[in-house]
Q: What sequence folds into this?
């Protein structure tokens, strides 16, 4: 990746390295990795919010399951496949809990 550094373009390297001018070069979080990180943060935040609200209505249990699927997708895309597998399991558990909650409400 190229970045603008002191009036010219240099290759971005790891945070501890220096450019040809001696200035410290820090990587810039842009493009695919930044979007993936944001997607993961939104997914996990949605999971937490829905989990906190699931006693209010069964729809929050279903939303929690959807957020688990999104977090699972993030895990697989980020290369953390064990996280992706665990989140898929949590989504299956949440769907089962949602069905039970709907039955209790007579829906």
A:
């Amino acid at each position: 990746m190229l970045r603008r550094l002191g009036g010219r373009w240099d290759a971005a390297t790891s945070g501890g390295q220096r450019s040809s001018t001696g200035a410290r070069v820090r990587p810039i979080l842009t493009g695919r990795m930044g979007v993936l990180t944001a997607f993961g943060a939104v997914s996990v935040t949605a999971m937490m919010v829905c989990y906190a609200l699931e006693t209010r209505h069964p729809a929050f249990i279903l939303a929690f399951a959807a957020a688990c699927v999104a977090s699972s997708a993030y895990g697989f895309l980020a290369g953390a496949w064990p996280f992706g597998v665990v989140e898929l399991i949590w989504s299956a558990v949440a769907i089962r809990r949602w069905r039970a909650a709907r039955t209790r409400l007579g829906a």
